[in-house]
Amino acid sequence: xxxxxxxxxxxxxxxxxxxxxxxxxxxxxxxxxxxxxxxxxxxxxxxxxxxxxxxxxxxxxxxxxxxxxxxxxxxxxxxxxxxxxxxxxxxxxxxxxxxxxxxxxxxxxxxxxxxxxxxxxxxxxxxxxxxxxxxxxxxxxxxxxxxxxxxxxxxxxxxxxxxxxxxxxxxxxxxxxxxxxxxxxxxxxxxxxxxxxxxxxxxxxxxxxxxxxxxxxxxxxxxxxxxxxxxxxx
Length: 234
Prior knowledge:
alpha/beta; NAD(P)-bd_dom_sf; 7 helices; SDR_fam; 7 strands
């Protein structure tokens, strides 16, 4: 179980799920750090993030140099929970609308970004007593559950993220690392990324996500689960 004053870093923290996670973690007495892209610093959403009491840090998950600079500024603090939440949206919807650029963009943001952030911040995670990496996954990444083939670029990237979660978690086990890596499907919550559509309520899902994060154990390493901690197929 987590205790007060643990440090949490949430990427993509100035809207949707990220902002709501910041608010809930702060309400539970965590020290919250929320990342935003440098070009977004003057956006009203960043002002809203600051008002939560979170410490705002700047980096772009697709720009390794900005992540490295953010880590250099992090200092000697342990990082107890890293939540890779920043993501690219679901469109294009149909196959003939998908371009190479769309595939590459979704892959860089949704799969490569979480891995690079995790890799660069690993020394801070190693300083924690019970460090966790949470990748914000999606049921859209489940190959066996793909029934219509729509949103191909997004689905491909989320399937890749599942492999990142599995592979990194297994390597943490093999090296006797304390770090636990888990993918969590947050549900279908209305956000800007979903075009404000979805059947799940933010106020219901967010506390469940945090309760599940708090309950994650060593045997969950490399796993994929829903907000209630129930195992999902990759």
